[in-house]
Design a protein that fits this description.
Layout lengths: L1 E3 L5 H14 L11 H13 L4 E6 L2 E10 L9 E8 L8 H15 L4 E3 L7 H9 L1
Parallel strand pairs: 4-5
Antiparallel strand pairs: 1-2, 2-3, 3-4
Helix pairs in contact: 1-2
Keywords: Acyltransferase, Transferase
Protein name: Acetyltransferase
GO molecular function, one term: acyltransferase activity, transferring groups other than amino-acyl groups
Length: about 130
């Protein structure tokens, strides 16, 4: 089930994100985040009214998706950059596809017309996911 993230989801979101930092090319930083930094990130998302959606399986957030400002120039006011991360033990189940569909619909509902995904050339999962739409 897809739902809006809660504060209590942040430890799982942190675990998923840090795994992406350490073991993939999906995130262009090399230093794992702290729970405090994820709490600040989440608060900023809420303040900017940028969604953080989670895929909930039996009460546990096993994936998340979000979007934010693409570029802070007036011509990009209808453009956002989105991100999707899935727990490594739950990949290949169609969860990312469901989150992508939901984040696209959420963006449309909020008046956005262009979604951008920054994908590393070696991130085969993300390339495949985005080619399907």
């Amino acid at each position: 089930m897809i739902r809006h993230a809660k504060q209590s989801d942040l430890p799982n979101i942190l675990e998923i994100y840090n795994d992406a930092i350490l073991n993939t090319t999906a995130v262009y930083t090399y230093k794992p985040q702290t729970l405090a930094s994820r709490e600040t990130w989440f608060e900023n998302k809420l303040n900017k009214q940028e969604p953080v959606l989670v895929y909930d399986e039996r009460g546990e957030a096993i994936a998340f998706a979000t979007y934010g400002t693409f570029r802070d120039w007036p011509a990009y006011q209808y453009s956002i950059e989105h991100s999707i991360y899935v727990n490594k033990h739950h990949r290949g189940k169609g969860i990312a596809s469901q989150l992508l569909a939901e984040i696209i619909q959420t963006a449309r509902n909020n008046g956005y017309r262009t979604l951008v995904a920054g994908i590393d050339a070696t991130n085969d999962y993300s390339i495949y996911l985005h080619k399907k739409i």
